[in-house]
């Protein structure tokens, strides 16, 4: 079964997303969030995972043959996605770029469930974070209980809606 954080994120996605639209697992890696979504009852054919790492995308495609898999970086995608679930990069510039990308590809009412560094969406600096967050309504925030082992950083699950 998926880990606790992935299960929490998938449950929020099922609750907040438009069930008639495809769900995108952005920066999917090996598909931990995809596995959790399937565990929650989402059919694999409703899922699309993408990642920049070719080996991870190949593994994802083998693990979830009914889901679509693309080898791309998030900023290369310029088409709309109503439902996005992701554990994007935690570096400040990459995380900011990810949120800026999300604000470009989503339209009013579209939603995202994200795992972000704790307090990231409250940052006043860099100014680009504050400016980007003006495009979103925050529907839900849940701090993770455990720290990430490899980065020793705290994180939170955030549900955003594009204004």
Give an overview of the whole structure:
With 163 residues, this protein is α/β, with parallel strands linked by helices. The chain has 5 helices and 7 strands; from the N terminus they run αβαβαββαβαββ. α1 packs across α2 and α4 runs parallel beside α5 (127-133). The mean pLDDT is 92.
Report the average pLDDT across residues. 92
The largest sheet is:
7 strands, mixed
What is the CA–CA distance across the termini?
34 Å
Helix content: 25-40%
Name the structural class: alpha/beta
* H/E topology pattern: HEHEHEEHEHEE
pLDDT under 50 segments (min length 5)?
none
Sum up the overall morphology in one term.
globular
Radius of gyration: 15 Å
Strand content: 15-25%
Strand order, sheet with most strands = 3-2-1-4-5-7-6
Number of strands: 7
Count helical runs.
5
Topology:
Elements: H1 4-16, E1 23-26, H2 32-39, E2 47-51, H3 54-63, E3 68-71, E4 83-86, H4 92-105, E5 111-117, H5 127-133, E6 136-143, E7 155-162
Parallel strand pairs: 1-2, 1-4, 2-3, 4-5
Antiparallel strand pairs: 5-7, 6-7
Helix pairs in contact: 1-2, 4-5
What's a quick, concise take on this entry?
The protein is an alpha/beta fold and 163 residues long. The protein has five helices and seven strands. Helix 4 links the parallel strand 4 (83-86) and strand 5.
Summarize this structure as a short list of keywords or feature phrases.
single chain; 163 residues; alpha/beta; seven-stranded mixed β-sheet; 5 helices; 32% helix; globular
